[in-house]
Amino acid sequence: MKKKFRIPLAYQILIGLIAGIIVGAVFYGNPAIETYLQPLGTIFINMIKMIVVPIIVSTLIVGVAGTGDLKQLGKLGGKTMLYFQIVSLVAILVGLSAANIFKPGEGIDMSTLAKGDIDSYVQTTESVQNEGFMDVLVGIVPSNIIQSMASADMLAVIFFSVLFGLGVASIGERGKPVLAFFQGTADAMFWVTNLIMKFAPIGVFGLIGVTVSKFGLESLVPLGKLMILVYATMIFFVVVVLGGIAKLVGTSIFSIIKLLKDELILAYSTSSSETVLPKLMEKMEKFGSPRDIVSFVVPTGYSFNLDGSTLYQALAAIFIAQMYGIDLSIMEQVTLVLVLMVTSNGIAGVPGVSFVVLLATLGTVGIPLEGLAFIAGVDRLLDMGRTVVNVLGNAMATVVMAKWEGRFGKETKSGHAPVEPIGESI
Hints:
InterPro entries: Na-dicarboxylate_symporter (IPR001991), Na-dicarboxylate_symporter_CS (IPR018107), Na:dicarbo_symporter_sf (IPR036458). Helix content is 72%, strand content 0%. It is mainly alpha-helical.
């Protein structure tokens, strides 16, 4: 009997990506293309969003209930947040250094740049800025967990899941049926994830086709220097910074990249970290990080450990200042770093988060907000790179935390039921 030929998912996604680029280029400037292709991308993104909350709730409850130790959990939380802040600071400094060394914004004729619409980001930023630190802190504690789940308020969902997991652990034998229910939920949701992933190439085709059909070459040429520098800086960050951290804890960043190649291609194509969250958690558990660590670190990292985004925000802020001929002093750049450290935390669920953070930050050092309109046109292309770095940063964080706790590779690498491999053909 002949073995059935299967095309790995990574190649399927690449085919969808290339086909989308070709179709978008052929129908460039034709608004009809969005009518037909956008629904494909929207359906795929919606399917991923549909499963994110159940997976996070079930895996986090199972992980915390398995730990059952408030002191140990608090210790893990403290170490995790410390690591996130240190790496975010390094990402900001790398972005600032690249912008100051290569000066991508100098010598640009702003009359040749096409402006994008940033009104929606301005409105979002105003609502974010109206919230003080205490408002954000209060918002972590949900008044209605069902409402928080419906609105995908991840910090509130994480807070509830951790407390519920501790509650399940504290009641001993009576909690076992509840734990078994959420274990079964996690197993079922990972199966659903694999099923949904078979639609990924079609979703990528639709999303990329619409994106390419909207781009004007006039905007890409003068902004090419920024795009090249952003990607080069992100590659440097991944290889040198994340690679150095990986070597420090006894692993290799290239091993993680190889492990996550399907997810990285998907994240790049869709510009969405959410699309890979379920498989990222599953694969990092199989890589050797215990389930309770993975289920805590990854969702938390999606709010507090956006290395690609913070690096880009620092670089883009200096780029805009250079476009307007504004020479920021050392103290102003230090202020920029401190403000970015604060504004980039905890608002990952806000649409266009990088733009929102930049809008909330630029005014503090006297950089015109209008400058963002000039890079809005190519933001999708830059967002694709940011998303990949964000995913890799959170994958690396699970390994660091597992090594720091002395538990990497010492426990069962996959506690859920076997599922079909992600590389199935459609």
